[in-house]
Model the fold of this input.
Amino acid sequence: MKYLYAIAVLGCVILWSSCRNDFETVPSTGNLEFSRDTVYLDTIFSNIGSSTYNLKVYNRSDDDIRIPTVALGDGESSNYRLNVDGIPGKMFEDVTILAKDSIFIFIETTIDINNFPNPDNAFLYTDKILFDTGGNQQDVELVTLVRDAVFLYPERFADGTIETLNLGVDGNGDDILVEGFFLDDTELNFTNEKPYVIYGFAAVPPDRTLMIDAGARVHFHADSGIIVANTGSIQANGSPSTDPELMEGEIIFEGDRLEPGFADTPGQWSTIWLTQGSTNNSFTHTTIKNSIVGILNDNSPLSLTNVQIYNSANVGLLGRTATIVGNNVVISNSGQASLACSLGGDYEFNHSTFANYWTNSFRTFPAVQIDNVLQVSETEVVVADLVRADFTNCIIFGSEQRELGFINNPSAQFNFNFRNSLIRFEDPNNEFTGIPEYNFQNPALYSDIVLNNDPVFFDTELNDFNIETGTSGADGIALPGIGPAMDLNGVTRGANPDAGAYESITFPDPGGTP
Done:
């Protein structure tokens, strides 16, 4: 018994001694190592907080060390915020790093551009993290680009409630409300001077037009978008760009997260909704990306020329009994259909590319879905005439065997036609034999189409749907004189044009440009 007691006492002494040694540190001698010598925080908008970035600090020595001070260079006035090994602040004393160990420092920032004298619309804000003082001092630079913006958002009232828009009533007779506001007359022209950041839904009032200038950048916070009211209009008037990287003439709609990790993330914002009765809606030289639904068109006229819609969580372009004319349109990589012509309507697309290589989850919809029916409830079905769905010189392709789908209710019209187009539709088990809509030998529905030949897109993951000269299944199959004389790259279409939005070009060298 005494023997066991002695062992227990000895064990306590050893444990106490080892714990005590953990705190026997030596001062830092300026030999810290860092995971990076400069932390670049990605571009942020004025007054919008950044993501959190991290820096790892290493002690490679055999001794536990103590850093007398870790602080921001600008001290408490810095616009950066730190969290050192789990403790928030801007200045820290006696920071310990055990031998052969490391700690994390997390960095964030929020900057009001108006707090700086004569700021440009964009400027670099810098500071540094200082480790120790005097001859042992080491530092890590902090850099972020701050952009000024025009912020549009619903009003917050004194009682804490937020301005809403009434979208009608639901099946129970209750109002359908969303956070949003009507743009006033001073806000109905988006220029290219500063980017726009929208919170909630910005609505175009009846009998008003939202004009968007070439080069404008429109960013949406989560659950935000644009609604065009009955008799209202939206006209996005982009222009050709001379620099494919800057895209200076392009109008771009995207989310408000500017970090590279969000560049192609679907579902960051809601939609551009053209409600029933809106009119004169048009988009030219416009890119719409990373939404839930790129454009939702309810029974309204819409013109699309040189338009790209990418990375939609649900549908790229959803028309419901809509009237849409599209030329040089690319719609790709959607969680459901890239193009959905639903509940009838009138559609014409020329030299357009509809592709779907969605990889985020299993996809059950084809790249292009056409129907004249809507299942409202288990017992209620609504039908509407498909007056026309004409596709000429188009590509319909993707990662699934069948990228074209139809749902035809015979109680309504169902008129469609495909000419000189490349379509992926494989039916190895003859499941669709005998279904009239899929009779690709019927000249009244399909003429001069090519089935299942690889279009040889440049890079489907990066939404680069250029096609390669000589090897693309779309090369030289188009009907001349249809649609725009130039492709989406500004290349003139010749006597033997290619299907899709792009004329074929030589495949670029790795790391090069077309």
Summary: The mean pLDDT is 91. Helices lie at 2-22. The first strand starts at residue 26 and ends at 27. Residues 220 and 356 are 24 Å apart (CA to CA).
